[in-house]
Amino acid sequence: MKRGEKVVLALMAVMVLSVMARNWWVGRHQGAEDRAIPFYTTASPDLAKQGAELYRQNECRQCHSLWTVRNMMESVPAPALDGIGSLRDEAWFFSYFSAKNPQEILPSRLKREYRMPSYATLPEAERHTLAQYMASLKVQDWYLADTRKAEYEKLTGKEYRP
Ligand code: HEC
């Protein structure tokens, strides 16, 4: 083996070893929290089923992501709904869905066609179910601040400064 080749091999060995060492280090120092999914729902199986069904029927996912599922082709900058029930409560959701003009409750920075539509014409029971379902979408405490920041930045387009 030529001297040059030895040097190259030695350098490669050092690189491989340092990547291994880094992975070991990160693996050791990452709490279980960092690897877990922070979002969960408190909904009963019945509510989860009805809520998901209404969510699908009303095409909420044309604009929103939930459980990180969304229609990529038609995605607009609407806030993600994962964890939204930790930021607002059921009564708020109900009045928001019932509002003729939701932007009076939550101002929009978007073009009209991308804004949150009014769901005031949905039957009241369905608005209740949707509101209950939204309220059940929670985020673990350790991810609450990140969720709030992401929501704020989506809504305003500005940097979040608590
Ligand atoms: C045409 C796109 C669009 C559709 C369809 C849509 N939304 Fe929205 N929604 C938005 C946008 C954009 C916002 C942020 C406020 C705004 O810009 O009007 C929003 C806001 C919200 C909020 C408040 C989020 C926050 O940060 O507090 C909730 C909750 C919500 N939508 C739920 C729903 C549900 C449930 C459906 C289906 C029944 C739905 N949206 C359908 C675009 C949409």
**Extended strand count:** 2
The average pLDDT value, as a whole number, equals 88
Number of domains: 2
- Name the shape in a single word: elongated
Which ligands accompany this protein? heme C
Strand proportion? under 5%
The SS-based structural class is mainly alpha
The CATH homologous superfamily of the largest domain corresponds to: Cytochrome c-like domain
Descriptive notes:
The structure is a single chain. By secondary structure, this protein is mainly alpha-helical. The chain has 2 domains: 1-30; 36-156, Cytochrome c-like domain (Cytochrome Bc1 Complex, Chain D, domain 2, Orthogonal Bundle), CATH 1.10.760.10. The model has no long low-confidence stretch (mean pLDDT 88). A two-stranded antiparallel ribbon has the order 1-2. The protein has helices at 3-29, 32-35, 45-57, 90-98, 124-135, 144-156; strands at 39-41, 137-139. The protein is elongated. Bound molecules: heme C. Residues 55, 58-60, 62-64, 76, 78-79, 81, 84, 88, 93, 103, 106, 108, 110, 114-117, 119, 130, 134, 151, 155 line the site of heme C.
Give a short overview:
This protein is mainly alpha-helical. Helix content is 48%, strand content 4%.
Task: Set down the secondary structure blueprint.
Layout: H1 3-29, H2 32-35, E1 39-41, H3 45-57, H4 90-98, H5 124-135, E2 137-139, H6 144-156
Antiparallel strand pairs: 1-2
Helix pairs in contact: 3-5, 4-5
The structure holds heme C.
Structural features:
162 residues, mainly alpha, Cytochrome Bc1 Complex, Chain D, domain 2, 2 domains, 2 strands, elongated, binds heme C
